[in-house]
Structures are given as structure tokens and as C-alpha cells.
Amino acid sequence: MATCFDVAVAGGGPAGAFAARELARTGIRTVLIDPDTTRPRLEGLGERVAHILKQKGLEDALQAASAPMRRSVRWAGLNETANGERLVRRHDFDAALRKAALESGVIVRTTRLRRIEKANPETGVALRLADGETVTARLLIDARGRQAPSANRQKGPQTLAIAGRLSDLTLPSGTHVEATPQGWIWSAAEPEFGSWLQICIDADDLTGSGQDALAERMRTFLAQPQFDGRFDTRGFQDDLLARPAGLVLSAPELPLPILPIGDAAVAIDPLSGHGLFWAISSALAAVPSVLTLLEGGDPDLAARFYRHRVVGTFWRQARIGRDFYRLEADLAAHPFWAARAAWPDDKPAHAVADDTRLEQRVVVDGNRLREREVLITPRDPEGVAFVCGLPVRDLLDLSRTGSPPAEALRWLESRGLLSGLPDQPQKTPETNTRMRETA
Length: 439
Ligand SMILES: Cc1cc2nc3c(=O)[nH]c(=O)nc-3n(C[C@H](O)[C@H](O)[C@H](O)COP(=O)(O)OP(=O)(O)OC[C@H]3O[C@@H](n4cnc5c(N)ncnc54)[C@H](O)[C@@H]3O)c2cc1C
Known about the structure:
Blueprint: E1 3-10, H1 14-25, E2 30-33, E3 42-45, H2 47-55, H3 59-62, E4 70-75, E5 78-83, E6 86-89, H4 90-103, E7 107-109, E8 113-120, E9 124-129, E10 134-142, E11 154-155, E12 159-165, E13 174-180, E14 183-190, E15 194-202, H5 210-222, E16 241-244, E17 248-249, E18 258-260, E19 266-267, H6 275-294, H7 299-327, H8 335-342, E20 357-365, E21 368-377, E22 380-384, E23 386-387, E24 390-391, H9 392-401, H10 406-414
Parallel strand pairs: 1-2, 1-10, 2-7, 4-13, 10-18
Antiparallel strand pairs: 3-6, 4-5, 8-9, 9-10, 11-17, 12-15, 12-16, 13-14, 14-15, 17-19, 20-21, 21-22, 23-24
Helix pairs in contact: 1-4, 1-6, 6-7, 7-8
Bound molecules: flavin-adenine dinucleotide.
């Protein structure tokens, strides 16, 4: 029997579960399809993600994460310890987010999406599930992570992460990251989970396949002299987990009626620690796109909004990653480091603006997408659409003809804009810079 929804979400990791819950909370009939197979593992969760979860009333999901823990770093001559990220038990975290989605009215189907049988921007999607049922929906959010299929992939040097939970060694609580000639290592220990060891090597730097090959590669990595026996382990509790970990842009254009989010749109190098933030923030940004589309808004707005965020995130993360790898000048001659320090180019990671101007962009306004003028200044190279809740164009007009609120006046003053824009506003096409963060 076919069931029709407004939105089907394929994949109940952080991006999909969070998006499904947010959509259901706006009254959209949503189904979430996920096989519930997250392997136990530890990851770092930054304060920006913790803040969004608290804001959205997701304290229960945050229970799957520790308080911020000590982080030590051995990278590019640095040898320091600081307050660091929280450690999140991903299987508990994902399950808590799916439970929150269910409690907000999402229909949760514990199975896989086997095949997209029909995808038409006018009439929606028909999905064949692994349990034999067919689900139809007006839109499909693809949140299948790195497993999402893509016809148009763009990627840099590919990294393979091999990781496991130690069975015979208890590491100090907190996290440790360290550069080595063969790649880098991340270790983490959290009282409820135990000790986790993750190595990141070049994807081509593995001989053979299967558990024996992974165990042998882990052994040779940990045998590097610089460790001096610090990771002298005899084994792991479960099978080692091997995961692709390089930066990938899977869907640069919005393939309506499908909206990719999280890793299914851009999968980020774990060195950045930005993956969970991107998963959650791209899920949040999907909500105004979905509302706009379901209400018959212009699909071109959604396509431009999507492209700007996704393509901008890919290139920014590519260059941020490159700069991290370049810091390790002493290892620059080793193939792992040479390839990553050279890709993608020599451009700056962040947008730079040397003038002040208005640009036409698609922004989020009242949880819908609208075209608005965005102000670019040297202090705001990524653009500002609203100041103190006022559209920036209205504020500039008001500064000439009326009296803007004191806080907005202070903002204008800090940008030298009390008497309006210096020159004629100039409209230029959208660039790769990120628009105002909607998260
Ligand atoms: C080795 C490694 C270490 C990392 N460490 C960190 C870190 O410390 N901090 C950080 O912020 N980020 C880290 N990341 C990135 C982070 O894991 C991802 O960015 C994040 O999980 C993306 O969330 P997602 O929901 O988009 O995808 P995923 O978490 O991959 O979720 C995808 C979901 O889709 C489901 N699925 C797959 N196929 C189907 C199907 N056919 N039908 C239905 N469901 C399906 C899967 O079961 C899964 O539940 C790391 C990544 C790697 C590879």
C-alpha cells in the first residue's frame, strides 16, 4: 500500500534526523527512513553544535556527549593542551535524534531506501524501501551520508580512516591529535565509551582488503618510532571500522525534487571537526527551502540558495584543510602531506572584500527563501542581509530619512556607513562567499 507524504527523508544520521524533526515541527508530514545501523564510535562535537541542540530543546541528544574535555595536540611543532571539544557517542546520539523526530510526529521507518523509482520536480518521488513498501512524497531529502549516490562528484586527495575501540589500553580522558609521516592519528577516551583510536592515511596506502589488512595497516602505523610505545596495543574490542574520510562535493546543483544535505551534499575531512556542524546547519537551512517549494515558490530560489551554500562550503573547507596540512612543514616531503598541501590551489580560505557594496542574493527571511540585497563590507566579506532584525537595505534607507534603532546605528557607525554607502551600489553576480549563516 502506498503512503503519501510531503517530505521523505532518506538517512537518519544527524542531518536527516534533525531535518525530519524540524520539518515535522512546522506541520509538514514527514517520513524518515533509516536502517538503524550506526556503529558505536566516538567523534568530537563542538560548542556551536551543542548550542544549536540546546536552542532546539534537544538536551536528550546532548546527553550522548561528554562535557568539553581536555585536548592535546602535536602538530607543526605545537605541543600543547587546551580545553577542547565534547566527545559524542555517535550511536547513542543518532538514536536520540531519531527518537526526538518520532516524538515530533515524524513517521520513522527502520529500513533502507532501496531505489528511487520516480523523481519528478512536478509530481515528487516514489521510493521503494528494502521492506518492499513504496513511499511517495512531494520532496526527498537525501541524508544518506557518504553512501548517497552521485553522478557528479568532485573531490580532493582521498583519505581513509581506520578506527576501533581499544580492548587492553586505557588512554587519558580527552582527545589527542598528532601528525606523523604516514598521516595523522586521533585518539579519544570517554569514561562511558572507553578508548578510541583513529588513524587517517591516504586511501591508496592500504594493501589488501578485509580485517587482516586493516589490522596490519593499523599495526605498521602505530609502530612509527615517534610514538615510542605510547599506543602499544594488542587489540580492539570489535572489528576495525574503515571509512572514506576525504572532502567530497557530491551534488553541486540542486537535483529537485531531491535536496541533498549533510555528507550527502558535501562530506568534510574529519581534521576540520566541522562535519557535525555542517550536518546540523545544512539540515536547518533545508527547512526554508522545503517550505518555499511546498508553497509553490520559485524553484530557482532554492537552487541558487543551495548552490551558494554547498559549493561555498566545499571550497572553503578544501582551503582550510590545505592550510592545516601546510602548517606541518617538517613533513611536507612525505606523499600524504605533499598531496594535501598542494590541493586545491593557493587562494585564501575565507572570502575577502576590499570594497563596500550591495549584492542581490537569496536569503532566509521568515523561514522562507527570498531575494534580498546583502551588504558586503571588508568586515563582512560573506555578506549581511539583516542588522538588528532589519533588512540591511531598509536600514541604509532609514539612516538617510529617519532614525534607526540605537544598536543599528552603532553597527552602521562601526562600518563607516552613517551617511549611507560610499559609492553607487554595484550589483555583481553571486560568488562563492557564504551568505549570512542561517543556523
Ligand atoms: C573517520 C571520520 C571521523 C569523523 N570525525 C568527526 C568529528 O570528530 N567531528 C565532527 O563534527 N565530524 C566528524 N566526522 C564527520 C561526521 O561523521 C559527518 O559529517 C556526519 O556524520 C554527517 O552526518 P550525516 O547525517 O550527513 O551522514 P551520516 O552520519 O553518514 O548518516 C547517514 C545515515 O544514512 C543512513 N543510510 C545510508 N544509506 C541508506 C539508505 N539506502 N536508506 C536509508 N538510510 C540510509 C545511514 O545508516 C546513516 O544513519 C568524521 C567523519 C569521518 C569519516
